[in-house]
Write a structure and sequence with these properties.
elongated; 74% helix; mainly alpha; 162 residues
Amino acid sequence: MTAMIDQAIVLRKQGAFDQAITLLQEASQVSNDFGRAMLHIVWCHDAQGEEREAIPFYKKALEGRLPKTERFDCLLGLASSLRCLGCYEEADSFVRIAKNEYPDNEELLPFYAMNLYNLGKGSDAVSILLKLLVSSTSSESIKAYKEAIELYASDLEKTGYD
């Protein structure tokens, strides 16, 4: 059934979303491909800006078997779509699952920070972004202030030399 999914991917890239979805629904009937088929249905909806329609398919995809990389993409995509629709608490739960399962995936951190901001946790969001900045920058001028940035990122309310 992987061939069906591959064919559906080609159709999606050509903009033939309805045909791709039909093919993916057929592929989902094979238990080994259920999760992947659901995830690719998600991407058909996402490509059309249909986040609300994609969410149930994200959840179904997580019920099936997914390769590790695709599971991460699914968790991140679901959290991002939920955040986009204003479902911040639910988005937070999926971000936290992704953080626990994939602690080294830094690309999750900006999305986590955005959702924390939406939850009214601006300090936590800024802290995450500052730490990400100093850990990933190639700017020598920022690296020169790495210790100070890290110190204050841990406590944005800190003043002076408390």
